[in-house]
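The passage that follows is intended for readers who have already worked through the single-chain material. We present the inputs for a multi-component assembly, then the predicted structure in tokenized form, and finally a short commentary. You are encouraged to pause after the input and sketch how you expect the pieces to fit together before reading on.
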Amino acid sequence: MAHHESAKVANSSNVIVATDCGSTTTKAILIEKVGDTYRQTYRGEAPTTVEAPFEDVTRGVLNAIAEIEELSGRKILDGDQIITPCRDDKTGVDIYISTSSAGGGLQMMVTGVVQNMTGESAQRAALGAGAIVIDVLAANDGRLPHEKIERIRTMRPDMILMAGGTDGGAVNHVVEMAEYVAAAEPRPRFGVTYKLPLIYAGNKEAQPQVRKILEEKSALVLTDNIRPVLERENLAPARNKIHDLFLEHVMQQAPGYKKLMEMAGAPIMPTPAAVGLIMEAIAKREHLNLIGVDIGGATTDVFSVFEGVFNRTVSANLGMSYSVSNVLAEAGLANIMRWVPFTIDEQTLRNRIKNKMIRPTTIPQTLDELQIEQAIAREALRLALIHHKSLATGLKGVQQERTISDVFEQQASGQSLIDMLKLDLIVGSGGILSHAPRRIQSMLMMVDAYEPMGCTRLSVDSIFMMPHLGVLSTINEKAATDVFVRDCMVYLGTCVAPIGQGKDGEVCADIETTWPDGKLTKEQLKFGELKLFPLEGEQKATIKVQPAKGVNMGAGAGVAVTKEVHGGVVGLLLDGRGRPLKLPAEQQARVASLTKWFDAVGLYPKES
Amino acid sequence: MAHSYTPGLTVTEQTVIHRRRMLPLPGKVVVAVGDRVRSDQVVAKAELPGKVFPINLANQLSVTPGEMKGYLTKREGDAVAKDEILAENNPLIKWFKTEIRSPVSGTIESISSVTGQVLLREPPRVLELLAYVDGTITDTIPQQGVVVETTCSLVQGIFGIGGETSGDIVVAVQAPDDPLTANHLTSAMKGKVVVGGSFLSAETMKQAKAVGVAGLVVGGIHDEDLRALLGYDLGVAITGTEQVGFTLILTEGFGTIPMAAKTFTLLSSHAGQKASISGATQIRAGVIRPEIIIPQRDGQPKTAGQSQREGIRLGDPVRIIRDPMFGRIGEVSALPSELTKIPTESEVRVLEVKFADGKTAVIPRTNIEVIEGA
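Having made your guess, compare it with the prediction:
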């Protein structure tokens, strides 16, 4: 079954119910056509029921939809069935669609021959399809053969993707890897009795040998090479196969998914794949370079589209609840503490973080708890972007033509595609960003973590509905776009950040702003300053930034830049803290700086 | 949300539990439905395929993979002993002779004429699956495992490390707010499940290891001490496979927190009885909490079903699970339905908790945990 075929045509759909089955919560939204446009009208949520005692994902789905029924007064359920299509104004929906990341999402292992060439391509293919990559094995990964086999044996992936070699190149390395995989007899995570799905997307010359070695031992699927020649990646066929196998094999094993697939009017998509689709669609429609982030309880997904190239990574153990303790482990206590505007002893902080890990559903009740959580979020966001940058690169191993002018500045192949100066938009999503009590908190968390340079617009997903809209876009583009623009995206504003360093109080840039009402103001931005000006959502202003000597706004040191900037619920943020952002090392000075910045933008309520 | 979802930990004097015991790979079930089993009894077995050792014989012989066959002294499927010759050449001058010996005992799994790789596999290892609790087999899943049922007292902890074990319960402290110290642990506690009070220090853990206790059940520990015990900073709460010498179960959380009186009283009343315990904790994707199971002595399972809770009610005993009142226990005294603004400025659903001293506090509903079980 190709995953496109089962999509029932739903262009006439006026009432749509969509769910996203997350690892803890199933979120449902109702979308209705109001006049000519689609709007998201009601939402409901319920605990996900993949695990015991229920072991049937549809229970949670029905509970979440029942909540929408209660709120909207529309009858959607008839017992365990969703009423489709609409019978009248108040009964039924035209289509039901869903995404899923329940049960730990789609976990894959990938193999290649050269780690940073076909290994990385395979990783990108799997990540782009919405998977969590639990390991990358390659002929040159430094592990001895028996260690590789042992590793494959102990992991229990949902699926394996094998790549390696260019078409027509040497076959023996990729065949060798096939032999290791066969010897390890990998077992799937769910279901003791079924064969593990395995996709071979390597050198096509090796297909007959791979088939001979693995056909008996796995549910083998052969597809086009993801790296037919060194200079080109061809990820789409492998990604499509991953989606097909996800539906045909993995989903069939997860509790209740057979029923869920029957209920849905379009193929169930892995949540990150759906979010990726919507991100790609925005970038394309508005010709933007963007970074999107979805920071969840367990994982943080980062998406980017630069010059039309889409990339996704998932940091499987960076999150705000289940994985919160791992953020501490990876970032280190000092890095978290640098964002906290007070002092706290290490033992208390460590215990608090662990307590959040074991009771992930709790929320901060006091202001200092909120500040600690937002400090942790900054570090999780920062680390996830570093991870993303390392994988969102040009192809490595590609020959480059050099001219005499490259003698002094030779660039290696495989540079990161993420260029903060070319970045137009940052889209944030996930509880800590979507539900921050003040929107400026979401904005500053992202600014501190990502250190955008020049002029960068920021936004958040209002109630986390990007997955729903992603899958909706596959069947009704207009509905997805309408809801995305009107109900999903909340524009926060624009951050203006000159690049350079200076002493606190020294001039960073002179800024001339022409406001929407035509008024012109002049502002001197000093180093160490953070300033916020209101500029509403639909409005634009024109700013002329004259950076000080040695300071850069993207056009070169000291060169003035004029730009049109967008407003938002927060406004225009002038960031004179310098790039890269450096915080005072000494504790008292650091707390003083943080307090000054936080007060300047009204980040937190004044404690009474 | 229409329904407030408040996860709770069960602390109950009597319940019927079912534990699915599954092999990691297909094998053989060795008990039948209706059999009475003991916790240390084998209920199913499987053969874990042996480790694989690849050797590239073609490279070692300096021949092409295609030519390799002529040099082999063994064929696919043959058994080999350690140091037995796998392949050799016959040069004119003996001095140049190359013999390749097997690094392990096992069988020749495969010989590849494409890569020159020979895979040797060690003999399989038998994996025995234990019943884990004393009880009765109520179901068998052919080749995969069984379900054991038992009528028992059950205490769920919040976090644990270490795997399944069992031992008699010993209560080492006087009160639930006494910390468990190294002095409390005596050599008589070897192989026992030792119940402490509010806190367990690094020094006590060291002593526990020296004594050889089977398990420790306490209110809380410091994260620092956990890190020292494990040797690394635990990032994600998926545990159960640690090997630190004993199984550790926390009933309350991290820090010094008195064990809930109900838990302490229940465990105290079963002192001297055998308990099966597991430290396995998995908070993501299917909550697994550590547990203390004390099978009832008369042993005959009763068909008392566990009642399903519907939300939270006035008078329910609750534990506050977030600072600033972390670990305090009280009962629900009011359940306002409207959203309330808390100091962070978030508007959330709250409830009022009344403490033993008569004082009350308003707490977000997500920050309390019902202490479940009659």
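Commentary: Chain B has four helices and 26 strands. The two ends of chain B are 27 Å apart (CA to CA). How closely did your sketch match?
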